[in-house]
Amino acid sequence: MNKSTKKFLQIIYAVFFLLIAETAASTEDENLRRLTKPQSAINFGVGYLANDNARFGQYSGVRNEGPYGTFNFDITKRDENTGTWLKLLGRNLGLQNRDIRFEHTKQGHWSYFIDFSQTPRYEPFTAVTAVTGIGSAHLDVPTSPTTGEPAQLKTERQAISFGMNRVLPGNFEAQFHFRNEEKDGSRIFGRGNRLGPPISGVVGGYEFLPEPINYSTRQFGGTLNYNGKDLQLSGGYYGTMFINKNTALTTTGGSSAGGIYAPNLFSPIALPPDNQSHQLFLSGGYSFNPTTRGTFKAAYTRATQTDSFFPTQFLAPGVGSNLDGRIDTALVQASVTSRPLPKLSVVANIRFEDRDDNTPVLLYNPLAGQLDFNGNRWSGLNHPRSFSTLTSKVEANYTLPMNFRLIGGIEYEHWDRLWQPTFVGHRARTDEISYRAELRRTLSDSVTGSIAYIHSNRFGSPFISTMTATGDPFFNTIAPLNLSDRNRDKIRLSLNWEPIEPLSLQVMVDESFDNYGHRSGSNLGLQNGSARNYSLDAAYTVSENLQAVAWFSRNETFIDQASRNWSPADGSREIWSANLQNIGTSFGVDINGKPTEKLEVGASLSQSFITDKFKQRTSDPATYSVPNISTELSNLKLFARYALRKNLSLHLDYILNRFKTNEWTWNHWTYTDGTRLIQDTSQIVNFIGLSAHYTWQ
Amino acid sequence: MKNFIWNMHAFFPQILGIFFVLSIGMISQNVMASDNDDDDEPTEDIVLRGDRTCTGCHDEGAESVLTIGKTKHGTVADERAPTCTSCHGKSIRHMDRPEKVPMPSRTFGKNSLNPVEDRNQTCLNCHQGDKQMHWAGSTHANRDVACTSCHQIHTAQDKVRDRITQSEVCFSCHKEQRAQINRPSRHPVREGKVICSDCHNSHGSAGPGMMTRDSINDTCYTCHMEKRGPFVRNHPPVQENCALCHNPHGTTAPNLLKVRSPFLCQECHEPNTHQGSPGTIDGSYRRNLLARGCLNCHTQIHGSNNPEDVRLEDLLQR
């Protein structure tokens, strides 16, 4: 904890004790007041983490063994005469993921708020590296493999928001909001080229270059709302701004092996450029009559990217000092819902979005026409990308006897894409049409639920062949995942059943099956896929003082796909396939009880087992095999709340958290500079906390 | 412009200290005002205007309906605040013969016999604008989700409006996502730092999937604006839909990728040379699977703004 944070927490502690001393005295008509007036609470104490970890505290900073402060408050006051609220909320003030929010509202008149939020993210892998300068835009990289020291990569977001609104005469309301977020730190990044190791006898390599993160992200806007009885309108402005304080990542050192593609020549490396957007919008709704309502939104957005290029001597003639990127997006959306007959309701909506990339097309690489390593020539132009989408839906809902409803719907999605394919196949147009039928039962004392079937079919215009700058066809074997023909069938079942008064059961099942089309003369790419999700939830109320909830989920996804291997040894090609599986089994139990008037206890257990399988079918399974990855996450929480007084209680919390994996992503990998990334594959965490909870009104 | 960047580290304690002291000052004043109010004579109505008709019977226990007094609906100084009958109807038969008509005209509990549209219209009569503007026609509206399926009206702490507890409410239907937030690669949903309503407007929106912004990408950009570009070198699927490659609810592959490299990349890319290799953790092609996989070389996978073209920039390598 740094010095300024300590000082801040000291101020908070002092103010709170003053506040409690002042307000604890109010006691009029206590029972009624307790039920009907806003209540405030403060919770403070200490916790102890018994084990170092990387996963449990990834987003809270509770990672290192030792004590941690617990400090939360929720102060709410209301002036009954004026309806003026004051709210002050503080969470996790003793930790790194703290939140503070202040709101002041005169209900029905005006309000404003200020909000602060801090979110760390610790990289779960520890880098053992000799690269120095981490976090800055200039790194020193060893020229040969060097054993380094452990380095913990981390990013942290700190956001301040404020907003206000004012109710105006004539059912109008004005709103304004602003949010600024600073994100600092570093994350895993690198450079490399495939001509390097591990292929013996050739040069090149891979180097660990943590990316410096020093971003400002802003959102701001103003809205004028009209809230009439039948007509509601909302129009205004929404702006965003991204600022990266680093334009490029530069290096000294690094491997010089590899000739013109040696890693040390890959510098500077461009970092994400500043960009901004400005949107004007108008949305609204109108109730034509009690059974018919229409809504709409129209918006126009201009997004620009004019961040200066980093200084370079290799800028092509005619290229300016920045991209001069500009994307104009127009959106129109409208929806109508109506109940023309007492038993029939209909929904129809349409949405059109046109994203027009007006970035100038320039020749960024005059030398692109020269032969590359594989004997191909390429265009040196940049490729702006425009596309438009049209989606529409019609759905009808008819009421049947016994509280059943029959729903049928058709949905249509159309894409137009403007793009000159180079390395990957392209389709100028795709269409997808979906049909939906559902039977649903609601309004029943014991059994409600639904069963739905959806069939969708995606198709499109002929594929545009990829080609080189000389017009020679390139490889045209893959229909990309978002462009390929696809048939999808999906079935969903949900059931809510209360067999006896204190017991409720919920069953949900959904299964989907995808079948992908392919490029003419090829059977590569996605073949088919399927997904299954089953869940069962049960809630049992033993008594007013004892409740239990249990749940189970099974989630499976399967993907079959094929590609073609290229052997560096003899240049032969072999079609191979992979069956990728992700299988998760999770369950949880929660029990809460109140054994005595003063004591509340509870336990919450959740467990997840996740397995990834990579079943490859090749002619050389000895070389090309990938082990399964199994991950197990367990979390046990126990708590006890003991009331010392009506408004003062002691809270005892215990957490046992376990993360176990055989994840191999970084196990067999050492960067050319000697960097390795490691993690503890079995992490067990014990955390115990004791705190006091005080409430007042 | 970069000179104006705020240094949050430097100003964080001071800014918070100032608004903290201001807020405490106002709270203290307000507490005193409230104490004075307690001297007022109690009226016949306990919480809401005209509630004596109901609270003559409904005044029982800790789960009392009276706790609506803690909420905005129970703020009677706001002339728009509802009465009991605003939502539950006049319930004349219920009042006259409660033993024979045990339910008010309109109820909102799980065993309610009032049509969902009727219950929801009760809320929409006041909450039809702003974030609820697109409720009509939204997926939740079309699937008979009642406002009270998610919202608790009579309690001060509405679970779905609390960042820590909101996901519990959403997961009562969205079971797949309940499992996914426990995957090794995830957003900090469990910590309440990224919550369902940060990305989805459950009341409906003009975007797909009830996104809070107008598209999936625009929603992702609210936190990941560095991916927006446009860049000198663009990667087409990035601009089209982040969810082509990422599952924001949680995955086992790193960086919320649906499938790890090279398998994910092979779902689009031609196997002209090394791109078509099977996965292996040893041997020559481990560079496609281990560490960052294809991104070991193609590091600028979201696009590169590098204006040079001398080191494989067009392949997103620099």
Task: Write a structural description.
- The complex is a heterodimer of chains A (697) and B (318).
- In chain A, the strands form five sheets. Chain A has a 26-stranded antiparallel barrel. A three-stranded antiparallel sheet of chain A has the order 8-6-35, with no helix packed on it.
- Chain A is mainly beta.
- About 2% of the residues of chain A have low confidence.
- Chain B has 318 residues and is mostly helical.
- Helix content of chain B is 28%, strand content 0%.
- The longest helix of chain B is centred in the N-terminal third of the chain and has 30 residues.
- The radius of gyration of chain B is 27 Å and the shape is elongated.
- Chains A and B meet through helix 1, helix 2, strand 2, strand 3 and strand 4 of A and helix 1, helix 9 and helix 12 of B.
